[in-house]
Amino acid sequence: MLKIGIAGQRGLAFLKAFRALPGIEVTALCDTNPDVLERNANAHKIAGRFTEFSAMLDSVDIDAVVVSTPMQCHAEQSILALEANKHVLSEVSACVTLDECWRLLNAAERSSAVYAMAENYCYRKDVVLVKELVRKGLFGVPYFGEGEYLHEIRHYHHNPDGSPTWRSVYQVGRRGCTYGTHSLGPVMQWFLAADPTERIATISCHGTGVHTDPEHPHDDTCLMLVQLASGKLLKIRLDMLSNRPHLPSYYSLQGTLGVYEAARFPGQPGQIWLGASHDGAERTWQPITEFYEHLPEDWRTPHPEELAAGHGGGDYFVARDFVHACLGEAAPNCGIYDALAWTACDILSEFSITHGGTPLHVPDFRNPTEKPLSYA
Q: Mind giving me the DSSP string for 56-76?
């Protein structure tokens, strides 16, 4: 039996998936607001109730925790859990400072527990399919990818009384690609499917300036260019303020033998073209639905809980794969090294954008020689 504690309301999105898996029990819920805690615990019949994260960790009734608290709490709470040898599933982003990245790395490497980041956009159906096509070599050698998160969420920046929320401070209270893992993670997983040794080398970030929401310094749109160690290039766009319809999951991939373009408008399928480049070749787009036979089996015959899960079924697979990792049946889909690399891009982008787009080295968290002396 694997017993799980959930910290924060967002983690309840994984509840149905956990309960659908054999040998899993959600035994505790943590929320700093006692009224919210009681309401959610009663609604979901969760016995263990805590207003302090450390008290939940001390409970003998949990083996793993879901850290779905505000972003600035993720690293500290994950470190506490890992030090207590509790498995961790952390919401994005993993950290808010580079110092936290190194501290979290140390905790993960010293712990016997599993760390995973819940990057659910890696589990969107079309993203999973493109990853499988890359793995099979149908795109040839990928060399350029794009990810965009265009999601106007100004209503999340203030509480009903007008006071700022954590998003107002940590997402739009600073410049840069402050919430970039939804865009970067899926594209980076495609490149890792083609070459597992690939890594991020440098980033640079540019912005449009402030036009829509003068209360916050965050650029309406920012672009982060991600150069891989192989020289390949990713373009990441973040826009959480502009007055426009949402487009939170646009992606594209260019390879030597084909290209994928996600849909730009609701109700339209993404498009794929595959083929060798030669004179006279007929290049006709095919809807991505024509390639669904390449989906992994568990996507072709979905579990009922997957169909009911948020983020296009992604929340179900995040929970399922985390459980498999805790039980030693598979490596985490987004383990500590990927989580830190993707998060570090967000953190470094703030310095880059405020210094004219200066390219910055992204640490190779797998390389012990890159650790600062205080963490070596």
A: HHT-TT-SEEEE-S-GGGHHH
